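Hi R.,

Here's the chain you asked about this morning:
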Amino acid sequence: MAFCPNCGSQVQGAFCPNCGSAVAGGSGPIGATSIPNPGVPPVAAASGLEPHIAAALCYTPFAIGLIASIIFVLVAPYNQNKFVKFSAIQSLFLHLALFLVFMALGIVSMMVTLVLHFLGFLMVILYPIVWLGVLILMLFMMYKAFNNQTVKLPFIGDLAQKQA
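And here is the predicted structure, written out as tokens:
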């Protein structure tokens, strides 16, 4: 007895009597059964990467997370999962915001160093503190995504939710 891959009903021929979709190989050999898993869609089951792992990879620090986010927004099995798509888009917006923050911090540090030479050493202290904060934020987001928990960042999360 075979089961329809589309609706899950029992099939005894080449076509499903319930939905009419074609069943590969007809009824198959005697004694062989194919039991569909109703909790896992066929696309997600064939992708090979669990959604919570894909979402956690989006928040990997530095360029790895950026590349993973772009891939998960573009590749078919992952961009159809709301959790992965939201995490990937939020991660892209987060990377863009961090890029802008560090550009502004660089401009401010150059201006402070040029105008007030003796305050330039404050930027040497400020950069590692900001990088440590970014690293802690990324690790926290990875942890939450790995545990299937959605954390919506202020402002960025609202933008990502509209896009997902």
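One quick note: The chain has two domains: 1-36, 47-163.

Cheers,
M.
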